[in-house]
Amino acid sequence: MFENIKAAKRQLKGHANITPVMTSRTLNHKTGAEIFFKCENFQRVGAFKFRGAYNAMSRLSDDQKARGIITHSSGNHAQAVALVGRLLKIKTTIVMPSNAPEIKRNATKGYGADIIEYDPEKTTREEISENLKSEKGYTLIPPYDHKDVVSGQGTTALELFEELNTLDMLLVPCGGGGLLSGCAIASKNMDPDCRVIGIEPELADDATKSFHTKKLHTVKNPPTIADGTRTPSLGKITFPLVLKYVDDMKTVTEKSIMEAVRYLFYRMKLVVEPSGALGLAAVLSRAVEPGGRIGIVLSGGNIDADVLANILADE
Amino acid sequence: MFENIKAAKRQLKGHANITPVMTSRTLNHKTGAEIFFKCENFQRVGAFKFRGAYNAMSRLSDDQKARGIITHSSGNHAQAVALVGRLLKIKTTIVMPSNAPEIKRNATKGYGADIIEYDPEKTTREEISENLKSEKGYTLIPPYDHKDVVSGQGTTALELFEELNTLDMLLVPCGGGGLLSGCAIASKNMDPDCRVIGIEPELADDATKSFHTKKLHTVKNPPTIADGTRTPSLGKITFPLVLKYVDDMKTVTEKSIMEAVRYLFYRMKLVVEPSGALGLAAVLSRAVEPGGRIGIVLSGGNIDADVLANILADE
């Protein structure tokens, strides 16, 4: 798999941003650790999802590209697929619930994707996608459970180790496990001694339970503010990878997620969405014990104005 | 003066951050220009003010350091002086109006400064400062009208040209003219062909008027959202420097300042205060015609939560 991540890096060259690594003297002083933030909020479409979408879509056959692709997501993956479709001139269709936030629907439409809305009370997104796949010949690019998507996301950690050489610990947010498993594979190959820890909201702790019991747990619409982690479970591909390459999983409270978003906003001047702030939440709440050189993946920065206003007002 | 800026750079080494330069493909595409943002929102205390304060205070004599320093400011300069005081073990006293925002008073206090409050209805900050200067032997470090402060701020542009070599245009926010004049001096020495343009809010256009008429104009408490530019006028030192080294001055509306803050927030995931967004406001509103390689100084990121919430809700 590591070869696939190195190949993904070559594939992304000149298309994805090599995102900066930021530090904070104040935070290092406060924690006694040396913390390095990999800023995927500065990635194209504002999240790491561009990496996986570009890697997967650019590898399709000419025939697949000509027929077009489909995905189901109301979040960052939808925007990534839509933008990559525009860049590579591939027709994209995004299946979204009719109650998806206006701002996300508009952003996705703005990149030129077709939006198919469905009523989540009456049908499932999988059913709609499957029907369109067979009817129109679209190829499905799922948000995480796909080898090329995982490899693309893994380039995040590959870049980080290329810049920093070694780390004692790497903290990665976990939703469906695409980013986490890709980063864990890159990490174990670049620096086998670095402990890779996946971070989930306490309210959406399916992957943490799955990791500790080695049996797949699921959650349904968990009420966490970290909307990127509301996925029902790890996937067929990501679950075994997480079991094999990840050292531990930890959870954080909603309160600590909001504290981390505030810290990044006020002290570091970074716009980071709640899911993106999980790693810092783990450090600030001592879900992991800080020390040594810690890498933290800030996975994205797509936060709605009212969500941020509520978080900033919560203090 | 350029020698002083190069000396300031040596003085700041290891103390100030070498702030990153950020770009946006979307913005370049939209404007047809190549735009480089010098991110002083990532400077220590969240604004360029750390540069001038550190340069000026670290050059004081041992005797001056032992007696302590005083300044009057309720903004970023106050926080910068307070932090530098803590770093260099110099006692600092900040004269602030009793109606200064709680958040700024607390941040300044947090760095260990003594706060002296005054009632702006009954007395002036200059009067209070003068009394304390003669009574206690404090040295005054003003927010902009001071040679070492100007030289410190000039390192912002020096770093930018060291990284980018040439620019066609450099856009710098203008309050009291410390940042603008320092950056203009550095710019004219590093790349004489680069046009340096100072940007002010239309509602606080004293420096623009002063520049065009060559006579000092003043404003009193202008109601602009860009609080860093509410200074009454250019200074005795900065006015002649602005006349000599700056190529032009332009103004922008409150609406365009808010649009720029929103753009930086949503599209670039950067927290930038209204004064810091003046350069981008000039480009987005076509107060300057974009083209070629444009440097924009994002001067700071200290924005209150409620101000940002209002700006984001204004769209």
What can you see in these coordinates?
The structure is a homodimer of 315-residue chains. Chain A is of the alpha/beta class and 315 residues long. Chain A folds into two domains: 2-48 and 146-313, 3-Layer(aba) Sandwich (Rossmann fold); 50-140, Rossmann fold (3-Layer(aba) Sandwich), CATH 3.40.50.1100. Helices cover 46% and strands 15% of the residues of chain A. Chain A contains 14 helices and ten strands. Chain A has helices at 2-12, 25-31, 49-58, 62-67, 76-88, 102-110, 125-136, 147-164, 178-190, 206-213, 238-245, 254-266, 278-284, 305-313, and strands spanning 21-22, 34-39, 69-72, 92-97, 114-118, 139-140, 169-173, 195-201, 248-252, 293-298. A six-stranded mixed beta sheet of chain A has the order 1-2-10-7-8-9, with helices on both faces. Chain A has a four-stranded parallel beta sheet with strand order 5-4-3-6, with helices on both faces. In chain A, helix 9 (178-190) links the parallel strand 7 (169-173) and strand 8. In chain A, helix 1 (2-12) packs across helix 8 (147-164) and helix 12 packs across helix 13 (278-284). The first copy, chain A, is globular, with a radius of gyration of 18 Å. Chain A starts with a helix and ends with a helix.
